[in-house]
# Entry
Amino acid sequence: MVTISTSREMAAPLDRVWDIVSDVDNESKYWHGTKSVRNISKNGNVIEREVVIAFKDSKTLQTVTLNPKQAIEVRITKGPLTGTKTVTVNAAGDKTRVDVVWDIKLSGMFGMFTGMVKKHIAEGTEQALDRIAQAVE
# Structure
């Protein structure tokens, strides 16, 4: 498994940050590695979806659990990579800290690209947090 961990403090209240990070249907606006999202089902705060990612335009199956104003837990169950992406938000006075932790494994022959993909996901996560910060600050 590959773990990638990134954090960013944003000069915005938790509610404003949560409104953007929890809008998982519009994830591609901030997370450019996400090309498209198609929801399969929604049951309360759990969403089953198919996501096309930038890595060779591959399809992944994901289960997203929204824990209001705390975390978004994405479980990637099928595709060239599997594992989890967890986005947590924490109020810090008039600022909000956003932490993103990926715990993923590349499937099959894609495993030989692990180092390259890890670097790409780490950079993409930093850029996504930059875009989110620009939107809320």
Remarks:
- Residues 114-136 form the longest helix (23 residues).
- The beta strands are 2-10, 34-43, 46-53, 58-67, 71-78, 81-92, 95-106.
